[in-house]
Every structure is written in structure tokens, then in C-alpha cells.
Amino acid sequence: MSAAPASGGAFWHAVFGNDAPVEIEVGSGDGTFLLDRARAASRRNLLGIEHAPRKAERLAARVARLDLGHVRVLHADATCVLGLVPAATVHACHVYFPDPWPKRRHRRRRLFSPGFVHLLARTLVDGGELYVATDVADYIVTIESVILESRRFAALPPGEDHPGLETAFARKYRAEGRTLFLGRFARVPRGDQPGRDAAASKIRSS
Length: 206
Known about the structure:
There is one protein chain. By secondary structure, the protein is of the alpha/beta class. The chain contains seven helices and eight strands; from the N terminus they run αβαβαβαβαβαβαββ. Strand 2, helix 3 and strand 3 form a beta-alpha-beta unit.
């Protein structure tokens, strides 16, 4: 992966007080994934973005109690934050179980749109990874299509170690025997034009 530019490094150093690689989770909810990731990736800085104020407040309090100096929680709209983050400075983005807005008339509210994918691509370093998960079959089709149609990402095999399997929703749904749909994508080097030849994987609990 390419190194973050100097200006971007200064930005994240001001946030975290160090120069470790940065990962962002969009929609941290109760923080199950963010806190688990904090323990598993202690040499990375983690920013959790949560739109719901009470959830963000509770999660920030948990982070403070656990004294996790490499974790920050922000109550904000993720699209605004991604637009402000210096370009090509984030090493991984995680977006798990976004609201599927199942009614047809509401689908324009879904998080994954060409504009949102553009922001993710802008934020990630070359080779940086985007992880997604949902339990809605038609939504993973939409997510995968909009990501690959941007021509800024290449699809990778999700793998059995996909981080999205460690979220609260994933654990709940797998216990219920529901099917999960996982995607993993790499930011292609700027200027490259990847093909569209890989698909998200379906994980069914046994």
C-alpha cells in the first residue's frame, strides 16, 4: 500500500497522536466490531462513525472506560466525514449491515450510491481495502454493482477471516441460520481501470 501524503499524516497525527495506519468503520452501532477490532489490531488507529447520537455517546463512553487510546468515536454523517478526510490516507473501511430500506420507494435512501463509493475510493490509499456485509440478497447485488461500476475497486475473495463476521448482527444472524453476504474490495492504484470479474461471497452458518 502506498504511504499517506505528509499533509494527511499530519491530519491523522493530530487526531490520534501517532502515525499508525488508520481504519474507519461507518455505522459503529453498539461498538461490538469496533471494540473487537481495537483488541485485534492494536497497532492501527480506528475511527468509528455513528449517526445516532445516543449510540455514539454510549460507545465513546465505553472507549474511554477501556482506555483505548487508538480508538476515536465520532457522532456525524459519514458522507460528510469522508469528504473532509485527506485523500488517500485510510488503509481500510468497514461498512456492515447498513439499513437496507426494503421498500422500493425508500431505496434511494440506501447508503451505497455512486457518490458514497466515490468518497470511499477517494479516502483509501492505493491497495486499501473496503469490507462490506449484509443479510439482504438484493442489496449485496446493488452494493457490488455500484462499487465495481466505479472502476476504482477490484473484488477480492472475502475469506473466512472476513472482519464483518465479528459484528453483533453477524453473530446473531448466523446463530439464527440466516445467510450472510460478504464483500471485500481493494482500491486499485489511481489511474488503473479494473475489470468486473469477481463477486461477493455467500456465507451460510452451519
